[in-house]
Design brief:
118 residues, 8% strand, binds zinc ion
Length: 118
């Protein structure tokens, strides 16, 4: 007798179960087993349901990947806006510095020729 789980098939009570359905978890016999791409199932509906589930999971996965790309785009746009604001702020600061720098130069060196007052 082949090694099997300690149960009988849900479809055939007299048959020893050989495994549990990957979809519903119910025991099945070798007569019932349906081989799917990612496991063995008790019936074709379970295999189909699992395939649909796997496809949905894959879709959700790709959706979440798309969403993360959108999030990356949004965050990059946000950082772009932040960069623009930073540039504007730097421009304002630079403007103030343009006003201030000659005064600072006057104060420090007095090298800049001053207009004759008389
Ligand atoms: Zn099943
Ligand atoms: Zn069976």
């Amino acid at each position: 007798m082949p090694k099997s789980i300690d149960s009988t098939c849900i479809q055939h009570p007299g048959f020893q179960a050989v495994g549990r359905c990957k979809q519903c978890g119910k025991p099945f016999c070798s007569q019932c087993e349906v081989h799917g791409p990612i496991g063995i199932f008790c019936s074709t509906p379970c295999k189909n349901a699992n395939e649909v589930f796997v496809q949905r999971a894959a879709q959700l996965d790709s959706m979440s990947k798309k969403t993360s790309i959108i999030f990356k785009l949004i965050s990059s746009v946000k950082s772009l806006i932040a960069l623009i604001i930073l540039i504007i702020m730097l421009g304002v600061i630079a403007h103030y510095f343009e006003v201030d720098v000659p005064v600072v130069s006057d104060m420090l060196g007095g090298q800049i020729p001053t207009e004759p007052t008389e």
